[in-house]
Each structure stands twice: as C-alpha cells, then as structure tokens.
Design a protein that fits this description.
Serine Threonine Protein Phosphatase 5, Tetratricopeptide repeat, about 40% helix, about 240 residues, 2 domains, alpha+beta, 5 strands, five-stranded antiparallel beta sheet
C-alpha cells in the first residue's frame, strides 16, 4: 500500500485540508444549477468514472467544493473517492483526493463507503488508507437519530414551516449525514440550499448538533437551533 511514511503524510494532509472544504453539496438535479456548472459537474463525474485523474484534479482546482459530489441525475451518489476505490487508484492519487477534503465516511446511495468498495474489489493497497479515522466518535444509533431530526429541521427552515413545498424537497436535495462530522478535526459543515440564498452551518457538539441557518429572502432571518437525539429544539424554545 506504499511506504508507511507516505501513507502517514497523506493522512496528515487529508486531515488538514478537509477543514477548508467542509461543504456538503446536496445538489443532485441538473435543473438546480446553471447549465455551465452542470457541464463542469458532468466533466468531473465522467473523468472520475473513467479514472482520468488529471481531468478530475483540473476541475477540482476550479471548484474544490465538489470534492465529494456525485453525478447529477445519477443513482449511485459515488463521489471521486468512491470512484478511486473502485478503480484501485494508486496511493498517491487517493492521497491527493484526501488532501482536498474527500470524506472516508461518505456513503453512496446504497450505504457503501470508499473503503467498502476497495475491499469488495480486492484493492488491498487502499484499505488502510481509506479506513475512516473517527476524531469525534458517536454511536451509530445516535448519529441516525440526529440525521433524521436534522433533516426535519432543514425541511422546516427551507419551506413555509408547515413541511410542504420546501426548497429541499423541491430540488430533491441530498441532505447532510452527520456521520461525516465525526472524521473532521473541527466538526463543522456548511450546507447551502439553492433558492434559499443561505443555508445551514452544522456543528457537532458532543452528542448534539448546533445548527445556524440563514434565509436571505424577503426580510430574511438568522437563527440557531439545537438538534438532539430527542428532537429539534427550536430557537423560540419549542420542539419540532
């Protein structure tokens, strides 16, 4: 899997760079973004799918926030790191993806992580490198409950408050999974929402989430809500 000192260096680079690109890209539909950006997303996805890493890094140089993005209108939600695991890319290539903020804990539509793909495909040289390093471990049942309540809050804040016709549903966004926060040195994540002119800044604090949200439309609003395993504690003190 490559010299131990190289693997250690790559892990350190990944841990450092993740913080500058900790953004959850929830856009999965082509009509949610401008055509020129959709074309670039296609270029990224096509390159990763074919193992053309030179093109992958060219696109990421221009749009580093897409490091964990899947194909528009796709089904698998494979990001570049999933594709690298599938191809059995060399350690240096995978290290460059990690250094740009690729998440080891990111799951595809069927729940598969990059390391799972490497194991299934027999790419043993990548298994240790792709195995998640949990800096803020939490039981999976806690993370699952936080995720479900966080998603309800996002629907609530991106819509009318009644749960109907919200922007997250309208754009069929892929909503954040708090699990990725457990591998970040600083467990914070930005989730922009198309049409909201704002979004959600999500912080893992122990076994809870603190969620700052901005809605910059007609008057706009900013607020902080708390998400626990029991539900969403709205800023006004009510439970959602």
């Amino acid at each position: 899997m490559g010299p131990p000192h190289l693997v250690l260096m790559i892990r350190r680079l990944g841990a450092m760079a993740v913080e500058s690109s900790a953004q959850w890209d929830g856009v999965v539909r082509r009509d949610s973004i401008k055509e020129k950006w959709a074309a670039q997303r296609d270029r990224l996805s096509d390159a990763a799918h074919s193992g053309d890493w030179e093109t992958v890094f060219q696109v990421l140089d221009e749009s580093p926030e897409w490091i964990n993005s899947g194909r528009l209108d796709g089904r698998s939600a494979y990001g570049p790191l999933h594709q690298a695991a599938w191809h059995g890319a060399d350690v240096e290539t995978v290290g460059r993806l990690l250094a740009r903020g690729a998440w080891r804990t990111l799951r595809s539509t069927d729940g598969t992580r990059p390391v799972d793909i490497a194991v299934q495909r027999g790419h043993q040289h990548l298994v240790a490198l792709l195995s998640p390093a949990y800096r803020h471990p939490q039981p999976q049942d806690v993370l699952d409950r936080l995720r479900d309540h966080l998603h309800r809050l996002i629907h609530h804040r991106s819509g009318s408050g009644r749960g109907d016709d919200d922007l997250a549903t309208r754009h069929a966004l892929r909503l954040p999974d708090p699990t990725v926060l457990t591998e970040l040195d600083i467990p914070r994540l930005w989730f922009p929402v198309p049409g909201m002119y704002g979004g959600f800044h999500i912080k893992l604090q122990g076994s809870e989430l603190s969620v700052d949200s901005w809605v910059r439309v007609v008057g706009g609003s900013e607020r902080t809500d708390r998400v626990t395993v029991d539900g969403v504690h709205l800023q006004e003190g009510r439970m959602l």
